[in-house]
Structure formats: structure tokens, C-alpha cells
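User: quick one, fold this
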Amino acid sequence: MQMTGGVAPRWGRTFMLVGLLAAALHPGLLEAQDEAPDTARERVARAMALMGGEARLRALETVRFDFMTQWQQTGFRALPATDRPSFERHVDVRDYRIPAWRNTREFGARSIVNVVRDSVATTDLGRGAQPLSIAYVDERRELFLYTPDRLLVGLADARDLHSAPDTVLAGELHHRVRATVDGFEVEVMLQEASGAPVLLRFAASHGNDFGLVPWGTMDVDVWYAGWRDFGEISIPTQWDVHRVGVPYRRMTVRDAVFGLEIAADSFHVSPELRAAYLATATRPMHESRPLRPFEIAADGLAEGGGFGYPLGAVPTSEGWVVIGAGQAEFNLESALSSLESAGVEPVIGVVAAVAATGNGGVVAAARRGLPIWTSGSARPYLERMLHAAGVSGDLRTVSGDTEVGAGELRLHLAPFSLPDAPESLIAWHPSSGWLYAPDVTRAFGQRVVRDAAEARGWSVRNLGTRRAFRSDGEAR
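Assistant:
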């Protein structure tokens, strides 16, 4: 995953108003902006003292964290209970000298051990070690960046450390410092009253990560809270990570041991395993999955693709409509080439209506000038992806019954709401009896959609969902 550091351009806009408010509360504040580097270093030193002092933080070479992570589904609905979190306990052991990271992840009775060195990643699923995607090397770099004690050491070492205008968060004055740390251009808010770091901001792209690649370069916020002592070291134990302006995950430190002895083989990667990693695991995740060539089935639908690719394509009297955009530009472009080889032409548009991150291929559709039919719930995802890529697309939100083509050889699009996916859509292809519900993943949703189809008088022979072009289920 290529990561690029950069101060997010929205900072200037976001903090202009709070900066003015701070100036009103503290006269002369704006005149103090861009203070001497010594002022910033004094503020970082104060924060380091709160954690145990610069000498202790610099002496830290090893640590063991026991985490509970709450993963939150990225979404843009203005309702609090729609993040549908999942939980993961993991034990994180690090040696900053290498640098190396050993992360033991627990899923019920099952555990996975990931070992990430400076430039290679491996995993053990209980069947022996094997290569792990390069995306985990990138994750290790970012994780070490926003670990609070490492962040402060990085700030102290930065040659370009400087102060920015003070700001107000939740009615309280905070100092801001900026610097380049491990290649990232970061901004940190330090509570004026205590000196504690409260918020880290930077921008990063994650071109190797399957789930994050659609966002392009995104703003990342890390909020810190829950301070505790662990021997002579004190750190915040709650790290809330936000991406593209919404919660992404909450990491809670259940326990921490600093300066522990680590077995010599804890981070061992054999030369053979390193060679296997370099041969198989350095491509982006979304490019490493094989494409199953598309073929036109007996009922006239084109199916193939595979994980991360568009689901298929359906014919209309005007041309073919691709179903699903795929995870990234690469996936849609690869699918279009395969569809053309199968005789699927012309392609007249794409239905990209999954209210989730798996729509990155819309960038390729926009570059080709293809219409993109979407839903009200999926549109915010697509807009952010197109904006990050610097392209504008022909987005067509389905807010009423819409026909693509005519007669039996048409695709009928209609707005449709599910309990967990309001403002979604359904697509009906009469000539094949195929029904598509992009936000359905479970049997419950399939039942609701089939009931709606029956009420409309549609005879469903196959149902397409977020994960499958066809699912079993004859019309009832």
C-alpha cells in the first residue's frame, strides 16, 4: 500500500472559525501563529513528561499491548446505530528496533498470528507460516505512527517541527504542532491545560489494502482518551480512528507491558518465506485475486468475475449494463476487457449501488464516461471516491422507477428500502427472471426482497445479492 503524507487541505477551512473563536477568548492568539520551533519543542517535551519523560520514552524498545478493537462499518447515515460493529481481541507485541510487529488475533476459539517485519509480512493460521499481503507492512507503519509514545518521539525528532495557530476543541483551548514523522505530514492537538495529545491528523492513501483502496488519499483522525499508568509509563488507552470523516475503529488498551523480554524467534522469518513473500505478496490485494473469465449463460446473462470484480452484466435492448463496479479501477477495467472477449458489447452503463466501500471501480466508469446508476444510500460513497480521484461521474440516483431498454429486454430499476439499508434499490430483468438487491447479504434480506417481488407480480428465477450474481431460490 503506497502511503502518502500530507496535511489535509480541510484543516485550514475547519479551524479558521475555531481559530477566530479562540482569538476572541484569548486576545493576541492569531498574532502568535507560526511560532518559533522552540515553542513547539517545549510543548512536545511537556507532553512527553506527562507520559513518563523523554528519556524513558526513548529507551522503550519493546512493548506488549492487549487490545480490544471495535471495527465499525463505514457509513454516512445520520443515525447512531448504523455502524454495525464487530469485536476482536488481539495481543500486539513489538520490537521497535527492527521494527517488527507480532499480532495474535483471536476469533472465538481460533487465533491467527501475523508477523510483520520492516518489509515483509507473514501469517500463521495454524497450518504453518505463509506470506501475508504487503498491505500489512503498510498497516504496521501507520499503527506505529499513531501509537502515542512513538508519536511524541517522532515529533521530537522531526527537523521541521513547528507550532500552528491554537484552536478550540469542545470549548477548550488546544495547542497545535505540525511536523513530518516517518514520511507523514502530521498535525497534533495538545490540550493546553495538561499538555496531553488529544488528536492526531494526517492524510494517507492505502493503495494495497482491499477495503481502503477505493477512498484514495483520505483524511485520518486519531483521538486519544482514557489515560492510565503502566509502571513508569502513562498513555491514553482509547484510540479512536476515523477515516473519510467517520468512525473506522476503536482500539482499547486492556493492558500494556513496556520493556519486556521477547523470545529471539518471535519475529523470525526464514529466507525461504521471505522469498515466497517477495514472489507472491507484494501486489495490491485487489489485483492479486484471479479474474474468472466472463461467459454468457443460457438465459442471456454474463457471469464470471470473482471476489472484488463486478458480478456480471445483463443485456437490454440498448446494450449491456454491468452489475457492480468492482473494488478498484483495476477490477472494472479487467472485467470490461473480459466481457468484451465474451461478446458483451456495447456496455452502456454500470449499476453501482452497494452502500459500502466496494465501489472503487466507479472511477474507471467515470473516466470512460459511462452512466452510473446508484441508490440514495450508496451515492455518498461514490461521491467521495470520485472526488478523491479528481474525476466527475454521470451519477444517476434511482429515486423512482427507471427503465434501461424496452420491452422484455430491459432492466427495471426501482427504489427499495430494507431495515438496515434505507434508500437502496432493486433491479428486475424480466427476460431472464433475474432480480438484483445490492444491499442484501443474509437470508432475512432475501426473504424481504422476494416478498416485494411477488407483490409486484415478478417471477423470480434467480436473485443477485451483494456477494453473488445468482443465489438459489425458485419463485414461490
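User: anything notable?
Assistant: The longest strand covers residues 218-230.
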